[in-house]
Design goal:
Blueprint lengths: L18 H32 L10 H10 L1 H34 L2 H16 L6 H8 L3 H25 L3 H9 L4 H39 L4 H10 L3 H29 L9
């Protein structure tokens, strides 16, 4: 028998040897987007100053920031109007998209009947629909809301319908053998399966919803970021135009992060292996 002492059991309170590396990697992932953004802004500023690019062609980030400060109240009012119309259209798209996705995804007949029509409708440029909406509803917030709805409706509907329609036939047969109805299969299996698809579509739809509302505001509204940008471009105030773009991007990122946070809380089980 050896007289060597047996090794001591590991201390549960002692951190693992690789815990520090994982913590550093996590902090680095949080800081990395800001580093990339800072590098992009610095490079932009350097290129404009180095090549003496005129502000009416490409303003420097400092000029855009100065325009944000100078026109802060006007940009704030326009951003709020755009945010309200975008969120309103986006919520309509969620309601009708989920309802349509459930109906189409749960029926192979409806799926085959309506899918070509939906694809054809989505292929129509929404900018061509804005004048029709103006004729129907006049100039104001309603065309912007409807344009945001039309442009963000299709991704939600398609993803929800796909998530429900791709439930394995074998699983459906087993559930029917156990006495489950088609409605119960959709509610208990189809909808949970479609949730990752649904939240993925939300993150796409919320960004394109801003495209729809601003596109309509440039044509059929006297308020909003789109109207502000059109007025600024007519006066050749290009830094103000870029300021509107920056504010729109910030609003889109914030709403994207809200959708992502809700996704982690609701369907975190589907992302348990994702790093």
């Amino acid at each position: 028998m050896s007289d060597l002492p047996s090794p001591l059991p590991p201390d549960p309170n002692e951190p693992l040897p690789f815990a520090h590396d994982e913590s550093f990697a996590e902090r680095f992932r949080l800081v990395l987007p800001w580093l990339v953004l800072a590098m992009f802004v610095l490079l932009w500023e350097a290129v404009v100053r180095l090549f003496h690019v005129p502000p009416f062609l490409l303003p420097a980030p400092t000029a855009i920031f100065a325009s944000l400060v100078e026109w802060g109240p006007q940009i704030g009012d326009a951003a709020f109007a755009t945010l309200v119309t975008t969120v309103a259209g986006f919520l309509l798209a969620i309601g009708f998209g989920v309802l349509g996705g459930v109906l189409i995804g749960s029926s192979a007949t409806l799926y085959a009947a309506f899918y070509p029509l939906l694809i054809g409708f989505n292929a129509v440029p929404k900018v061509a629909i804005v004048p029709i909406l103006v004729v129907w509803f006049g100039i104001g917030a309603i065309p912007a809301i409807l344009t945001a709805f039309l442009i963000s409706f299709f991704p939600i509907l398609v993803n929800v319908a796909t998530g429900i329609a791709t439930v394995e036939p074998e699983l459906k047969d087993v559930l029917r053998a156990l006495g489950a109805s088609n409605r119960q299969i959709v509610a208990k299996v189809g909808l949970p399966r479609a949730m990752p698809y649904f939240f993925a579509s939300l993150k796409v739809a919320i960004t394109v919803a801003f495209v729809g509302s601003i596109m309509s505001e440039t044509v059929a509204s006297n308020v909003g970021i789109g109207s502000l940008m059109m007025t600024a471009s007519a006066r050749f105030e290009v830094p103000l135009v870029f300021a509107g773009l920056v504010v729109t991007a910030v609003m889109g990122i914030l709403l994207y992060l809200v959708a992502e946070a809700i996704e982690k809380r609701v369907v975190g089980w589907a992302m348990r292996g994702h790093r």
